[in-house]
Structure formats: C-alpha cells, structure tokens
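Thread: Newbie trying to understand structure tokens

Hi all, I'm a second-year student working on a class project, and my supervisor (Dr. K.) asked me to get a predicted structure for one chain before our next meeting. I've only ever worked with sequences, so writing a 3D structure as a token string is new to me. If someone could post the tokens and maybe explain what I'm looking at, I'd be very grateful. Here's the chain:
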Amino acid sequence: MAAHVQSLKTYSKCMNKEIPVVIITPDNYSVQNKFPVLYLLHGYSGNDNDWIKKVPEIKKYADMYGFLIVCPDGNFSSWYMDSPIDSSFRYETYTSKELPQWIDSHFSTIASRNGRAITGLSMGGHGALYLAFRHQDIFGAAGSMSGGLDLRPFPKSWDISKKLGTYAKHPENWEKNSVINLVYMLTPGSLQITFDCGINDQFYKVNCNLHKKLLERNISHDFTVRPGGHTWAYWKNSIAFQTVFFHHFFEQNKN
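---
Reply by user tm_fold:
Sure, no problem. This is what the structure looks like when written as tokens:
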C-alpha cells in the first residue's frame, strides 16, 4: 500500500471556472475514519503539480502521518488574494472557502480548523499565512517556506502590481495585503505558526522582520533559519520538518 495521488478538477463559483488540484490520500485512508488535511501551495509561476513532481517524498509524509495533502492551482501569479482591481481574481475566496468545502464534501475529512493546516513556498508561503491569519475559523495551523511575507519592498516584481495596482497609485492595497501587516489579527495561542527561510534568500529580511513583530506581540511561533536560497533543494528539506509540526498539531487536537 502507498499514498494515492489524484489530479482532479474543482469548480470555483466565485470565478466561474474549473481549477485543477492534486490530492494525496494516505495509504490508510478510508471513509470509515476522518482525516486531517494539509493544504500545500505552490510559488509564483508554478501550478498544482509542482510539489508532487519536485518533491515526490510528500507521498511518504502523507502515509507516515495519516493526513491528506491538497495542492491547488493558485494561478501563475495570484498571490492567493482577491484582487481589489481585477474581479476575475478571487483566489482568497477560492482557497479559504470554496476549496475546503469541496474537499470536505468529497473526502472523509475532519471538517474543522482542528483538522486543517496550510503552508506553501514563496508566493505560496505568503498565501498560506495570509489566508490563515485572515481565516482562523478555517485553518488552525499555518506555515511558510521562503515566503514573500511583505510585498512592499518589491513593487515591480512577480506581477504583484497586476493584482494590487501599482504601489505609487494604490499604496493602501499593498499595506493591507502584506502578511507582516496582518499580525494584529492574531492573539496569543489563536493559530499554530511555523515558518522558515534560507539566509541566502531574497525574502530572508522580511521573514526576520515578521519573526520580530510576532515576538513583540507575544505570538508563539517557530521560526527556523538555515543555510540555503530560493531553491527546490531548500524546500524539499523544509517540508520534511514542517510536516512534523503539522502532525503534532493534528495529534494534539484529536477529538
């Protein structure tokens, strides 16, 4: 027996289109039991197949820890937000509401925040913490690997201005949609958080800044710094540790 990988199509009502998703079910999956779910987000220019192709070891983690892994397509450059300037981009609504509802209706899952965690790399690291901070009723634990956790230092990069407008004309969109400015939404103990970044990564400084801000607010979290850059070799190593973190969260919150 081994983890089962499926490529399925989900439907987003808010965007009126089908969105592909890769779903990994553990070898002990059965409809007689309820299973937790880890939502795993890809980075800029990626797609739903990135994780399973680049890090096939995630199948082993699904088996080891007995949870589903769900990898949705977050578009080339959605940053997992509902764009305030382009109504066709509503990836916050899709990923935080429509997708979990679809997964819970099609699989035997723990349909509560105690059975849901979310993490991702780069753009997906931003997306995971962004969605979890804003939807703590949906996700009980969240992580980020090399995440772009503050958009403001990068006004001309990664198509962010296509979703938020230019920083020069719409600074408020950049301010209120950067993860680092959403810490106020947290209270101590409200969300289990883990994030990490390599010291040679372009996002290293913004990750350190989030760590400091969380410390100032007395928000418990794990923050790990390692040698490495913005590479799949780094993320392959990182996800091994993050799945342990989420496994502990799920075990602690078993009913």
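A couple of things are worth pointing out once you decode it. Helices lie at 50-54, 58-65, 91-106, 123-134, 160-164, 171-176, 204-216, 232-252. The longest helix spans residues 232-252. Feel free to ask follow-ups in this thread.
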